[in-house]
Write a structure and sequence with these properties.
The complex is a heterodimer of chains A (310) and B (441). Chain A is α/β, with parallel strands linked by helices. Chain A has helices at 17-35, 59-70, 91-99, 115-122, 138-152, 170-181, 210-213, 227-231, 238-245, 275-278, 285-303, and strands at 48-53, 74-79, 105-110, 126-132, 159-163, 185-189, 205-207, 219-222, 260-262. Helix content of chain A is 37%, strand content 15%. In chain A, 49% of the residues are buried. Chain B is 30% helix and 24% strand. In chain B, strands 1, 2, 3, 4, 5, 16, 17, 18 and 19 form a 9-stranded mixed sheet that branches. In chain B, strands 6-7-8-9-10-13-14-15 form an 8-stranded parallel sheet, with helices on both faces. The mean pLDDT of chain B is 96. Classes of the chains: A alpha/beta (310), B alpha/beta (441).
């Protein structure tokens, strides 16, 4: 297998369709490993990885940690709260200290957009962006692409609708870039206060009404709605949001028969998506999580240029 | 009295539309004569200015010198040396120091240190106590102590009622108010211009309307009350249009623009990969805004060019984007950036006399300070310019303590060759020469 010719994975905006294809193919092999009884390969034995999380995370963090364990890497996880950040140490100092301990790859989640770029500029180790502010969450984007490809057999020509708080969503941004590069058609829907200004930058179309957006859709993806957006006056109440924009059987009735339902989690049941839909056979919510581990294994393998397995 | 003869330069004096080859004789701290073929007594120190432009000393009407309180970022002496290196003979220093320059004692401190600095420093006083936008500062006392204008720069005056009172009170003592126009409720959390690029980068945006709403409010108050307003660092097309209309309606308003708003757009934040040297307030705007600023500059809507020199220590800037302070250090790039535009012939109707007017006569007129002219009898503050000199922007070589600029590595044509303050050469070919060893501290 080839390796990725790059030091970092910072966002899907800067990754080519060829690279995405390579990552998705590698992900498929990695999922094979996950299905084995003994989920462990020696590929990254003796390699050191740091998981640096300045924001709370369950899914992404667990997913990266498991991926590292399955690949036999040595890793440590540092949470923002327990790190020296609270003692006033800068990000640059924190990571440089860890780097001289032998870390070759840093996985970072950070509340500030662009901080993954900042980090990558300042260290020699590889950086994988596990979410930077409202900017990108490339591994989530890749696992979503993988899930869609796995379920639909293709990405090209599909209509994918992203519903909800696109404005503040790094998941949406990564998905938009990834999907467009792979030839899918992307539509957005949600209240205008939750849409990013000047959408033409992304080359996608936004709809005010979900019903209109999901017409003939192959995939619909709901985004998590943060309660704090209500506090800053962007929408009146969770109740009203659910009634106007929440995904329900009825609301997605105009989509294709085999509509795939997705959500990056964690789900606010009954707000952005009804339980009925989230737990329906059409839902791929849990498949996304499985794919998440495999995608991260693939990225570690491709970035750290793992020794040939067989 | 010590004399200095400046021979055979192209003398441009925007204060009286003078543009011809001539000699200049300085006598002590004053200009004695400007004419062709001047004779000076044998032994008079002479600068051969053939091939150089001789202009009134440049005045930067908007700088932050960080002194007192943030001397690790800049101090009055380093800021003054940076000004001299950049061709400025005088600067107006903003009040957001620590303590805030909201009191006669701080104005006095700045003036006392300024006496020992390389260039003239005109302190601006705060408009409100502690820049808090609650109570008026002692404008009259500070004015008597030498404050040339009043501003809460860096912070907008949120309360319309306080702004009204400030205008009315300032009118009574004929004081100039400099405004930083920004609606804080609209700009809260904003890191850059709101638009295509902020959406792409996932950075919180500040809309053009945040500036325009406050400007509209203050122009309405000005129309109602009268007085003198100067709008700092105009950044949007809408603001330019509002100032244009206000001037047409006869309001006493002036405006300035910075080189970075004239030369860069929000694209720079992306192109420079989230470099915090692009983080500035008001933010780098859209291409349409940038073009409107040039139009405003050329048609007279915008009176002056000012650097808004905002020096920061690299420890403060070398962090994640949201955590970095706003500001670009511009004293040592402003003139070269503008001359380079002139040399590049990109802007139709941009001429050297017009450019110099915006950097000399206009700021002197707005601030009502001596200077901005080469009339005999005026202070011997001059800037000699080499239009052909090539410079490469390298903050490591600056006199400023700061290095926060998005222009690092730019190759520019045109620079100050000599800076002369009160008849003394304070900068020659990039080297700042101080009259006497300074007692810093």
């Amino acid at each position: 297998m080839q390796a990725l010719r790059r030091k970092d994975i910072l966002g899907l905006e800067e990754i080519s369709a060829e690279e995405i294809t390579l990552i998705l193919e590698t992900t498929r092999s990695m999922r094979e490993i996950m299905l084995r009884k003994i989920k462990k390969v020696p590929t990254l034995r003796g390699r050191a990885i740091l998981n640096l999380f300045y924001e709370p995370s369950t899914r992404t963090k667990a997913s990266f940690e498991l991926a590292q364990k399955y690949m036999s890497a040595d890793s440590v996880s540092v949470a923002g709260a327990s790190s020296s950040l609270v003692k006033g140490e800068t990000l640059k100092d924190t990571v440089r200290n860890v780097e001289v301990m032998g870390v070759e790859c840093v996985i970072m989640r950070h509340p500030v957009s662009g901080s993954a770029h900042y980090l990558a500029r300042n260290i020699n180790a590889s950086v994988i962006n596990a979410g930077d502010g409202m900017h990108e969450h490339p591994t989530q984007g890749l696992l979503d692409l993988f899930t869609i490809l796995d379920k639909k057999g293709r990405l090209e020509g599909l209509k994918v609708v992203i519903v909800g708080d696109v404005r503040h969503s790094r998941v949406a941004r990564s998905n938009i870039w990834g999907l467009k590069k792979m030839g899918a058609y992307v539509a957005l829907a949600g209240p205008p206060t939750l849409m990013p200004p000047d959408l033409e930058a992304f080359g996608v179309r936004a709809y005010d009404r979900v019903e209109e957006a999901v017409e003939n859709a192959d995939v619909v993806m709901a985004l998590r709605l943060q309660k704090e957006r209500q506090d800053s006056g962007l929408f009146p109440s969770l109740r009203e949001y659910a009634e106007l924009y929440g995904l329900t059987e009825q609301r997605v009735a105009g989509a294709k028969e085999d509509l795939l339902i997705m959500h990056p989690g964690p789900i606010n049941r009954g707000v952005e998506i009804s339980s009925g839909l989230a737990d329906s056979p059409r839902s791929a919510v849990l498949d996304q999580v499985t794919g998440g581990v495999a995608v991260r294994m693939a990225l570690l393998y491709l970035l750290l240029g793992g020794i040939k397995e067989e | 009295m010590k004399k200095l003869l400046i021979k055979s330069g192209r003398v441009i004096d925007p204060s009286r539309d003078y543009d011809q080859e001539a000699d200049l004789l300085l006598s002590g701290a004053k200009i004695e004569a400007v004419e062709k073929g001047l004779k000076a007594p044998a032994g008079t120190e002479t600068i051969d200015a053939a091939g150089l432009i001789v202009a009134p000393g440049l005045i930067d009407m908007h700088v932050h010198l960080r002194d007192p309180g943030f001397e690790y970022k800049e101090d009055i002496f380093s800021g003054a040396r940076a000004a001299a290196a950049g061709g400025f003979t005088a600067v107006a220093a903003m009040a957001n120091t620590k303590p805030v320059a909201d009191d006669l004692s701080v104005i006095g401190y700045v003036k006392e240190r300024a006496d020992r600095a390389a260039v003239r420093i005109y302190p601006c006083g705060a408009l409100t106590k502690g820049l808090e936008g609650q109570e008026l500062a002692e404008l009259g006392r500070m004015q008597m102590g030498g404050a040339v204008a009043f501003s809460d720069d860096g912070r907008p005056v949120a309360s319309a009622s306080l702004m009204r009172n400030a205008l009315q009170y300032a009118k009574g003592i004929d004081a100039l108010i400099i405004l930083h126009e920004e609606d804080p409720s609209l700009s809260a959390g904003g890191m850059m211009h709101e638009g295509v690029v902020s959406s792409l980068l996932g950075l919180r945006g500040t809309t053009a309307a945040a500036e325009e709403i406050m400007l509209a409010r203050d122009l309405l108050l000005l129309q109602y009350i009268g007085g003198r307003l100067h709008v700092a660092h105009l950044s949007t097309a809408g603001s330019v249009e509002m100032v244009r209309r206000a001037k047409a309606a006869g309001l006493n308003v002036t405006a300035e623009v910075t080189p970075h708003h004239l030369l860069l757009t929000d694209r720079a934040v992306k192109n420079l990969n989230y470099s915090t040297n692009t983080k500035v307030n008001p933010p780098l705007r859209s291409e349409l805004d940038r073009q409107a600023l040039w139009e405003g500059l050329l048609d007279g809507t915008i009176d002056a060019i000012a650097s808004d020199h905002a020096p920061h220590h690299s420890d403060d800037k070398d962090v994640e984007y949201d955590f970095a302070p706003f500001g670009i250090a511009g004293l040592e790039t402003t003139l070269s950036l503008m001359l380079n535009e002139l040399n590049a012939n990109r802007i139709k109707n941009l001429t050297l006399p017009l450019l110099l007017e915006k950097l000399t006569t206009a700021p002197a007129r707005i601030l009502r300070v001596n200077g901005g002219t080469l009339r005999p009898g005026s202070p011997a503050d001059l800037t000699l310019i080499d239009l052909k000199q090539k410079v490469s922007v390298n903050p490591d070589a600056w006199y400023s303590k700061a290095s926060n600029t998005p222009f690092t590595g730019y190759r520019l044509t045109g620079a100050a060759a000599y800076t002369i303050v009160g008849g003394e050469i304070v900068m020659k070919r990039g080297v700042v020469t101080e009259k006497e060893p300074l007692l810093h501290g």
